[in-house]
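Notebook, bench 3.
Goal today: get a predicted structure for Sortase family protein from Gardnerella pickettii JCP7719 so we can plan the truncation constructs. The sequence was checked against the plasmid map this morning, with no discrepancies at the termini. Length recorded as 228 residues. Pasting the sequence as submitted so the record is complete.
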Amino acid sequence: REYNAHRNAIFTADPYNGTDDFKKTPEYKKYDSVLDEPIGIMGIVKIPKIGVKLPIYHGSSQDVLAYGAGHLYGTDLPVGGKNRHSVITAHTGLPHATMFDDLIYLKKGDFFYLDIQGETLRYKVFRISVVEPNDISLLQREKGRDLVTLLTCTPYGVNSQRLLVTGYRVLPDLVKAPDDKLQWPLWMTLFVIALVGCAVILATMVVADVKRKRGKLDLHAKHLSILA
């Protein structure tokens, strides 16, 4: 909240333009140290209607968005408060994982949740917009409001525009989001399966080698007993 209080306005750019030179600046390094949990994530975004539960990382580089959702640098940190507007973004159309692919199915009145440092913030969708990539007019702060926008590319497979799903904070945060399983990218699951498979194969080879050597020793001992 202190970080947000020292910001006068929202300054950001399209997260999918491939530019991340700003990561080298002192301002970004300071930002990267705020809400830095031991496990390396800022929080979790949950969208029960479409079965989404993703980790939120700092920034929106391609490396970050391959693993989950990212907080759009230049917007308020997602900790709530009046006159605040945070943006959470994730990919649509990744071949190995479903991130924000189904964001198109959200309607006004639906809820989504942010789990930040042990606190669950609940937001109600009131605005759904499709804009050009560099149009950030709807990502600005709005007087007296606590807003979060979910951002992704659209249309599916074309990605020429941006889908913005904006919600306002609903108090009190009495309703907890369902505790669905965290969505891990498919490649991570396949990697773990492959790793386990390799371990099994290696163990089988070691056991077979031990048996083979033991068989040779037994045979050698048998020959010695015959010669004796």
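The longest helix spans residues 186-227. The chain has two domains: 2-182, 185-228.
Flagging this for group meeting.
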